[in-house]
Amino acid sequence: MNQARLETTEQATEFFDVVRRRRSIRAFARRQVEKEKLQRILEAANAAPSAGNLQAYEIYVVLNDRRRLTLALAARDQLFVASAPVALVFCAHPALSVERYGKRAERLYSLQDATIACTSAMLAATAQGLATVWVGAFDDDEVRRILGAPRGIMPVAILPVGYAAEKPKAPERRSLDDLVHWL
Fold first, then answer.
1. Any residues with CB less than 8 A from the CB of 141 and at least 6 apart, and which?
2. Residue-number span of the structural domain to which 88 is assigned
3. Nearest-angstrom CA–CA distance, 142 and 42
4. Is the whole-model pTM more than 0.90?
5. Is 142 within a domain?
6. How far apart are CA 57 and CA 120, in angstroms?
7. Is residue 45 within 8 Å of residue 146, measured between CB atoms?
């Protein structure tokens, strides 16, 4: 096997290992996330694809303990949000894409952009030995207020980031036969 093919195979193996290792973690160790790791997570989110490359989303990095606690309370008292040393809040910014793409962009594209960026951040965290959990249940207006975000910004996901204090088993998934429809 030539060197280029071997490197490609190794990279693919690493990627699929990261995808398989990712778990939703709700218990975090009392350990800070290194700035370099957080920077790589943000760079991965920034590299995510977006409609028209407009990146119609914003990322709020919440390091302050008190503010993370208020986020946890706004997220239906999911206190694990406050136990992570970092919470990233991904928000759609529809105004950035609506001019080019119209109504569909306003209700969908910016939401997709924010979710793709959040997914890239999750995988980047996992690749660096960190843990995350996607939190989508929260009071939008309260989260926007906590962040000090302007009115047009729509919170989409809170992503607590830290070192895992638990190691859950892989959950059962739907079979591909049930999930995939070949046409």
1. none
2. 35-162
3. 24
4. yes
5. yes
6. 13
7. no
